[in-house]
Every structure is written in C-alpha cells, then in structure tokens.
Amino acid sequence: MASHRRPKQPSRARVTVLTTAAAAAVALSAQAANAAPSEKPSKDEVKAKVDKLYEEAEQATEKFNGAKEKQQKLQKEISTIQDNVARGQEELNQLRDSIGLAAAAQYRTGTIDSSLQLFLSSNPNDYLDKASTADQLSAQQVEALKKIQEKQRELAQERAEASDKLKDLASTRTELGNKKKDIQGKLAEAQKLLNSLTAAERASLAAADARASRSASARVDLGNATAASARAQAAFDAAKTQLGKPYVYGATGTASYDCSGLTSWAYGQAGVSIPRTSQAQANAGTRIYSESQLQVGDLVLFYGDLHHVGLYAGNGMVLHAPRTGTVVRYESISDMPFQFGVRI
C-alpha cells in the first residue's frame, strides 16, 4: 500500500538563512551596478608611484652590488687557496718521495730500520708519538717527518677554509639572483605604470624632466665653488665627461652607470680606489654633516639607508646617475633627503 506521508517542510531557521543570503546577493548586485568605475590615476600619481618603485629598485641595486662584490672577492680568495693547496700537495709529495728514496737505499743495503718501515706503512701523524722508535731515526729523517706532518695540517686547514668559502659563495650567488629578480620586478612594474599613460602625458613628463636638468646645469655654471682637493677635482672632472650616459643598475662604466658605479669610476680616474657600494663609500673618508661645508668632488650621501650617492658640483648641486630612465646629470641636493658628505 502506497505511503501518504506529507513532504518534509524546510525548517524556519533554514528559510531565514536562505532569505538573508538572497537579500545580501541582491544588495551586492545593486551596489556593483551603481558603483562608479574606478578612475584612472592621474599623470602625477603615476609619476609618484614610478619614482617610488625606482627608489626601491635602487635600494635593491646597492644590495645587488654588495653581493656581486662579495662574490668576486670570494672567487679570488678561493682561487688563491686552491693554488696554495696544489703547491702544498706538490711539496708534500716531494717530502714523501725523499723519505721513500731514503728507505729504498736502506733496503738495498739491508739496513732499513723498523721505525722507517712503520712510517711507510702507516699514518705519519701517529709516527712521532711513538717515542720508543723516534730515537732510531736520523736527525734528517725526523726533520723530514715533521715537515710532512706540518704540511698535512696546513693542507687540511686550507681545504676546510676553501670548503667554507665555497658554501658562502653558493649562498652569495643565490642572494645575487634574488636581488636581480627584485630589481627587474620593480622596473617592470614601473614600466607598466608608464605604459598606462597616453603618449601626450609621457611627453609632458619627459619635457618637465628635461627642463629641470637644463636648470640644474645652469645653476652649476653660475657657481664658483672650489674643490676639496686636487684629486677631488680630478674625480669631478672625470665624472663630467660622462654626462648624458644612461643609468643601468650594476653598471660601472663607461657605457652606463649606477650611482656608486659612477662615483667609484670617477675617483678611479683620479688614482683613488674607493669601495663599490654607496654604503661602503659612506665610510671612505671624513664625514661632513653641513651642506654649507661641502666642496666640489665630495661624495654626497642620500636617504636614511645611504642607498644613493653622487658628487658635489657646487652651488647646492650634485652630479650623479639618478635612476633607471635617466642619464648622468646635475640635480639639486634638495631633490633628495641629504644625509652627509664624505671627503675622500
């Protein structure tokens, strides 16, 4: 016989939940329909964002430069150690050969002593500990064995040092790759923002940039500042020959530069070796905290983390490689947060 049960009715709580959800969905749909489309950022807003990205890219660039410098230093140190190990192994082999020749001569005459046999058949590091046999060796053989022991210790230490430095090198290479990706990511994001502007807007920004550069050059020409020293003047004169060269992260000339690449190159032309990165250059001389005491050729450090550096050009101006998308040029010190100068 067929069942005549009544269909189960939805609970009151379930009806309430469904009704609430439906109402919320309708409300959200209405809000979405009535919401105003997002406004395109203005030219000035884009410029501000791009400038911020370029500053962050330059921060990463100086860290990249530091890792690259460390990598080069480690590679040189490892090469030196490996050369030392190769020479040491050759010396060790020669010492062993000399002992072997002595043993062979004694064997031929039937006079080889038990102590020398012990050395040739076991670890020489344990040999001299056996005082009962040491007195059977000639003074010359004892000296040779001591040299072998010392050379073995030296080689073990150098191989351990090389192993540690190789691990450090691998870590540094990883850091270098990460910094490079960081820089490229920020530059790509900045370019994407610039591409969102119209051709007219991009032209307007470029024209404003060019006007500022011409004005800065004119201010330098009006100045009559003296150099901090003959070498500072020589470094500044060298940097002036690079005006107009493009900024490229990690570059040290002469086709392109980053900020510390330009300053280190310029002082190199004056016969002065200074560190590669801006943070290291901050400790390369005497610090000058007053802008009024700066002289031509002094290094000028900017930003709290010292990630930017240029050369003082006189009349409140700095000669530097600013950032991606620009060239080596003059700008006002007031355009960036001045920290201090450094007199080399």
User: Poorly predicted ranges (pLDDT <50, ≥5 residues)?
Assistant: 1-7, 11-30, 32-37, 131-135
How many helices? The count is 10
Helix fraction, binned, reads: 55-70%
Shape from CA axes?
Answer: elongated
Question: Averaged pLDDT, please?
Answer: 83
Straight-line N-to-C gap: 107 Å
What is the topological layout?
Elements: H1 12-34, H2 43-109, H3 114-121, H4 124-127, H5 131-134, H6 139-195, H7 199-222, H8 230-240, H9 259-269, H10 278-281, E1 286-288, E2 299-302, E3 308-314, E4 317-320, E5 329-332, E6 338-343
Antiparallel strand pairs: 1-6, 2-3, 2-6, 3-4, 4-5
Helix pairs in contact: 2-6, 8-9
Q: What does this protein look like?
A:
This protein is α+β, with helices and mostly antiparallel strands and 344 residues long. It is built from ten helices and six strands. Strand 3 (308-314) and strand 4 (317-320) form a beta hairpin. The longest helix has 67 residues, at 43-109. The chain is elongated and about 90 Å long. 24% of the residues are buried.
Provide a brief overview of the structure.
The protein is α+β, with helices and mostly antiparallel strands. It has ten helices and six strands; from the N terminus they run ααααααααααββββββ. It has helices spanning 12-34, 43-109, 114-121, 124-127, 131-134, 139-195, 199-222, 230-240, 259-269, 278-281, and strands spanning 286-288, 299-302, 308-314, 317-320, 329-332, 338-343.
Highlighted features:
alpha+beta; 6-stranded antiparallel β-sheet; 10 helices; 6 strands; elongated; disordered N terminus
